[in-house]
Amino acid sequence: MGGEYPARLWAAGEVFSETVTLTLPADLPPGEYPVQLGLYDFAGGVRLPVMLDSLRSPTDTYPVGVLVVR
Question: Over pLDDT 90: what percentage of the chain?
Fold first, then answer.
């Protein structure tokens, strides 16, 4: 979607795909880095709560995978 479909327009239950490019520092040490997503309130910039298994995530983020740097 190229960042052209802001979360404030999403419908409940809607599914779509988005590709994001991460620029990593050239000197980033090899290792495994957790990747997490968070959403923010458009008007106030406050991170929105994230629920995992009926409990609020302490960081209000959702884990989506691990980035492996070799």
Answer: 61
- The residues, any chain, with a CB within 8 Å of residue 43's CB and separated by 6 or more, are none
Produce one character per residue of 24-37: b if its CB has 16 or more CB atoms within 10 Å, e if not. eeeeeeeeeeeeee
Model pLDDT, residue 58: 95
Helix (H) / strand (E) containing 30: none
Instruction: Examine the pLDDT at 62 and tell me if it is beyond 80.
Output: yes
Distance CA(50)–CA(60), nearest Å, equals 5
In sequence order, what are the residues at sequence separation of 6 or more whose Cβ sits closer than 8 angstroms to the Cβ of residue 41?
A: 47, 48
Gap between the terminal Cα atoms of the chain: 29
- Given a cut of 90, whether residue 3 has pLDDT beyond it is no
